[in-house]
Design a protein that fits this description.
The chain is built from 14 helices and 17 strands. It has about 475 residues and is α/β, with parallel strands linked by helices. The protein has one domain: Alpha-Beta Barrel (TIM Barrel). It has an eight-stranded parallel β-barrel, surrounded by five helices. A three-stranded mixed beta sheet has the order 8-10-11, covered by helices on one side. Strands 2-6 form a two-stranded antiparallel sheet. Belongs to the glycosyl hydrolase 1 family.
């Protein structure tokens, strides 16, 4: 048996994609609440205010706010040891910088954590999962302002004080490295981009990386604060990790793959684990004609606030070519150098399915940092319907998860310290990239559709029962 005795098997979610109740319980407006629905053929739209003719998926999502007891009971039935979730910043501080926290919001998460503990489920809590208060975006230009660092730090301090006896594992920012791509401008950084398409947002490279720097400083301040006041807490980072393969063995392809992987998959982890900027990032900034403005205390803050463990999402690998003659697939969220890998199958959303890539990622990350690792997102998005017999037969999901778990086991045999795995997702939720319900990831089906209709009834898929057995047997 390769999986550790106390391995944290479970499922994952995000408040802005799952929770709903966007204007209930004193919650304020978040940037996610201003992004309309879309599809893999039609981009989501960012609006300055809520427009009645548009559908905003985050407003109800799949309604964890009113179904949390039912859902957590289902997680327990599946045998979850852990549930990775996030807290809505605007449920605690409606504007983001309010004088006092919203007690009704704090009490809601008390109930959620108590429900998890009742079943012996360990909450793994992300403090900010693509979550910026709309007020901070509109009045401060989001993370472009250093003032937001202190607003976030106070928010995190309130969470630690309230929940430190109920939550042991914390994550400061979800997929913080999405800010290395223009897709992160509005949702993760809260930068003002005006009325625009979600995929094709106006971009200012200097501003974007400066805002990311402010998130680094905020994360480090929160980690240092947690270590000082609540030394038993474990506080980690979270990276969207996408290994890059060279399309050929040509040195230019190999070099490009390394450069892209450094800046888009390794850079943020390097800063949060080592407490300093890596050499290649400084070269990247210089090549692109800008420099990061450091406050006098920033370097000391980064060095002091390094994380305890490393978490990441893994969905796919990318293949890149430096040859101008090679046809690129032009994946708009990743960059223009990508090509289809001829050795891999793809999902209907053009994601390369690569279980072995997960073993490669685990070995690369552990070799680099020597910290405990946790995979907090891994899954496949598929359009699926209820069959004539009333069930959801998702053999494709079982096949996907089984092959990835097998590679996790091999990585553990390689010597990697892997402590947990939470599939994406526990329940069907709104897709962050496309705003669809059609793109389903869960092992629990939710009766909710792209037009906003549906009963919100829950139904266990075949993969639910399969995963239940995996957990029961600790991966055997």
């Amino acid at each position: 048996m390769s999986f550790p005795k106390h391995f944290l098997w479970g499922g994952a979610s995000a408040a802005n994609q799952y929770e709903g109740g966007y204007n209930e319980g004193g919650k304020g407006l978040a940037c996610a609440d201003l992004i309309s629905g879309g599809s893999h053929t039609t981009s989501r739209k960012i609006t300055a205010k809520i427009e009645e003719e548009l559908l905003y998926p985050s407003h109800e999502a799949t309604d964890f706010y009113h179904h949390y007891q039912e859902d957590i009971a289902l997680f327990a039935e599946a045998g979850f040891k852990a549930f990775r979730m996030s807290i809505n910043w605007t449920r605690i501080f409606p504007k983001g910088n309010d004088a006092e926290p919203n007690e009704e919001g704090l009490a809601f998460y008390d109930r959620v954590f108590d429900e998890c503990r009742q079943y012996g489920i360990e909450p793994i809590v992300t403090i900010a999962h693509f979550d910026v208060p709309a007020y901070l975006s509109q009045e401060y230009n989001g993370w472009a302002s250093r003032e937001v660092i202190d607003f976030y730090a106070r928010y995190a301090a309130v969470l630690f004080e309230r929940y430190h006896e109920k939550v042991n594992y914390w994550i400061t920012f979800n997929e913080i490295n999405t800010a290395t791509l223009s897709i992160g401008n509005f949702l993760s950084l809260g930068l003002q981009v005006g009325e625009s398409e979600f995929i094709n947002q106006p971009d200012n490279l200097q501003q974007r990386y400066q805002a990311l720097h402010h998130q680094f400083v905020a994360s480090a301040k929160v980690v240092a604060y947690g270590h000082e006041h609540y030394p038993d807490l474990k506080i980690g980072c979270m990276i969207s990790y996408m290994p890059r393969y060279p399309y050929t063995s040509h040195p230019n392809d190999v070099l490009l793959a390394k450069q892209e992987e450094n800046m888009h998959s390794k850079f943020c982890g390097d800063v949060q684990v080592t407490g300093k900027y890596p050499y290649y990032a400084k070269k990247y900034f210089a090549d692109h004609g800008f420099a990061i403005e450091f406050a006098p205390e920033d370097q000391a803050i980064l060095a002091k606030g390094t994380v305890d463990y490393y978490t990441f999402s893994y969905y796919l690998t990318l293949c890149v070519s430096a040859d101008e003659k090679v046809t690129k697939n032009g994946h708009s969220m990743i960059g223009g150098s990508g090509v289809n890998n001829p050795y891999l199958e793809q999902t209907e959303w053009n994601a390369m399915i690569d279980p072995v890539g997960l073993r490669i990622a685990l070995n690369d990350i552990y070799d680099r940092y020597q910290l405990p690792l946790m995979i907090v997102e891994n899954g496949i998005g598929v359009s699926e319907t209820v069959a004539e017999d009333g069930q959801i037969h998702d053999d494709y999901r079982i096949d996907y998860l089984e092959k990835h778990i097998a590679e996790m086991e091999k990585a553990i045999d390689d010597g990697v310290e892997l402590i947990g795995y939470t599939i994406w997702s526990a329940v069907d939720i709104v897709s962050a990239s496309t705003g669809e319900m059609k793109k389903r990831y869960g092992i629990i089906f939710v009766d909710k559709y792209d037009d906003g209709t549906g009963t919100l009834d829950r139904k266990k898929k075949d993969s639910f029962y399969w995963y239940q057995k995996v957990i029961e047997r600790n991966g055997l």
